[in-house]
């Protein structure tokens, strides 16, 4: 599903560039919303039983890992999108926000590539002070 959205965004990038409609921020908001929903579900006291609590904890931990991985992927795709649009300051900001503990996306780019792009863009755009 995530790769389908990426390929759709690549095919529609000319349409969105002409209209100025952001593609990636919508996915970022969805990831933030999923994190908030999962946090509420993890703190809910409506789940009965000790075994259910253990299963819920394991499912919550797995869901948080999936959400964190998706957020890292979305941030990397957003950085690539900003790099394509030559917004180097935004590339540096997005690359700085990526958590590499959860980043595993070899189909698109490696973590060392994200670090390199982020470092070069940060050196080019940020103040030295």
Automatic annotation (TrEMBL):
InterPro entries: Rpn7_N
Protein name: RPN7 domain-containing protein
Highest taxon in the source lineage: Eukaryota
Domain 26S proteasome regulatory subunit Rpn7 N-terminal residues, every copy: 68-129
Gene3D superfamilies: 1.25.40.570
A Pfam family of this chain: RPN7
């Amino acid at each position: 599903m995530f790769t389908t959205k990426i390929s759709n965004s690549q095919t529609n990038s000319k349409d969105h560039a002409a209209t100025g409609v952001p593609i990636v921020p919508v996915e970022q908001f969805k990831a933030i919303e999923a994190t908030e929903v999962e946090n509420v579900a993890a703190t809910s006291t409506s789940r009965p039983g000790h075994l259910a609590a253990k299963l819920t904890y394991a499912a919550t931990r797995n869901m948080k890992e999936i959400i964190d991985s998706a957020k890292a992927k979305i941030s990397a795709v957003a950085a690539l999108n900003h790099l394509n649009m030559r917004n180097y300051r935004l590339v540096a900001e997005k690359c700085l926000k990526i958590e590499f503990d959860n980043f595993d996306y070899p189909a698109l780019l490696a973590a060392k590539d994200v670090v390199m792009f982020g470092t070069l863009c940060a050196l080019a755009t940020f103040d030295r002070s």
